[in-house]
Amino acid sequence: MSDCDVIIVGAGASGLLAAISACRSGQNVVVVEKNARAARKLMITGKGRCNVTNSDDIKDFMSNIYPEPRFLYPAFKSFFSSDILAMLDEAGVEVVLERGGRYFPASGKAVDVVDALVATARRSGAKFMFSTSVTGIIVANGAVAGVKIRDERGEKSLFSDKIIVCTGGRSYPLTGSTGDGYEFAQKCGHSVSQTLPALVPLVGKGDFFSRLSGLALRNISASLWIDGKKSHEEFGELEFTDFGVTGPVILTMSRWAVIALHENRKVRLSIDLKPALDEKKLDSRILRDLDANGKAKLKALFREWLPMQMIPVFIALAKLDGEKLASQLSGDERRRIVSLMKDFAFDIVGHRDFNEAIITSGGVSVDEINQKTMESKLVKGLFFAGEVLDVDANTGGYNLQIAFSTGWLAGEN
């Protein structure tokens, strides 16, 4: 005998949308959440502001998703950015469109999004069991029969023939994303690809990072090189830390850097500090500045070219004498300046762990999931949604939309 029509494991972004969708489809829904409140990870997304979604159309969304973007096409057709924005508007949450097509709540508070989605789920009829952990999925005769749960009163079973796993990945484990869903999937016979941190800061090799820590560079071009070949290139902003680099361009390229590092391949990052100028034009500008400021010390002249914090590091790496007068600079020294400005490069030797990763790459194989319903092809009545699946995306609201869309489609079915 079933306790409810649908059990949803996890009250994050995908779980809340699955609950709303399933309730609106006429189902009796129970959401089981290990934390004392819903969507703890959603509360910290976008640095606490919550980048809800992106204004891109489906085609452009696909170009930001890996490794199998077309798997998500039915989910996006079922529930997309305009739908989550309409839902939030109905719940009284105003959103604003910012640079890069990113939508945020006008209040700048992620909690407003969380509270709105929880309230919508409750109004739709969903019941919540907080501070309750799912310890296993009960399967009988190739179909789900319920879940085993544990709370402060002990252990028991909750029965249902439809279960949606919305447990998230491994990123930000303090929010409850500890990889439980991967274990559930494997015990049900599913394949789980290697899970790695994605959208994560990178660790650089060099003794200068502590001196550059906190320095943000804007309008630069950064390229990732793997085994001597250019892998990816991004234009925008990065920030130095005491261990390496972070920021939008770094997070976007980190997926491939992390994979390459785990394959023991050589990874190098090159920063073009003056992407608007080719080497010839940059050399002409520097030569012009040198001629016009012949009596100035080189370290003073560098203020025209670089942020103050970077100057001593740059001069040391270029093996220059900052006390030398501009008029005394040799042609070889000038060429070293040009070369380093166009190729400020260093090896990437590591990455930060899941505690600092925005998302997880890898997960439950989408080959074993029906993309039109999010139901398992192996176990009847078992559904998966959100970060637990082997799909991830660039920063910009894409990952949250994946969670919303797959959760909605799972609940609808």
Tell me what you see in this structure:
This protein has 413 residues and is an alpha+beta fold. It has 14 helices and 21 strands.
Helix-strand blueprint:
Elements: E1 6-9, H1 13-24, E2 29-32, H2 40-44, E3 53-54, H3 58-62, E4 65-66, H4 73-78, H5 81-90, E5 95-98, E6 102-105, H6 110-124, E7 127-129, E8 133-140, E9 143-151, E10 154-159, E11 163-165, H7 180-187, E12 196-198, E13 202-204, H8 209-212, E14 216-226, E15 229-240, E16 244-246, H9 248-262, E17 267-272, H10 279-292, H11 298-301, H12 311-317, H13 331-342, E18 344-351, E19 359-361, E20 382-384, E21 392-393, H14 398-412
Parallel strand pairs: 1-2, 1-11, 2-7, 11-20
Antiparallel strand pairs: 3-6, 4-21, 5-6, 8-9, 9-10, 12-19, 13-16, 13-18, 14-15, 14-17, 15-16, 17-18
Query: How far is the first residue's CA from the last residue's CA?
Result: 21 Å
User: How would you describe the oligomerization state of the chains in this entry?
Assistant: single chain
> What's the overall average pLDDT, rounded?
97
Number of helices: 14
CATH architecture of the largest domain: 3-Layer(bba) Sandwich
Short description:
With 413 residues, the chain is α+β, with helices and mostly antiparallel strands. It has 2 domains: 6-195 and 362-412, FAD/NAD(P)-binding domain; 201-352, no CATH class.
Based on the model shown, name its key terms:
single chain, 413 residues, alpha+beta, FAD/NAD(P)-binding domain, 6-stranded antiparallel beta barrel, 21 strands, 32% helix
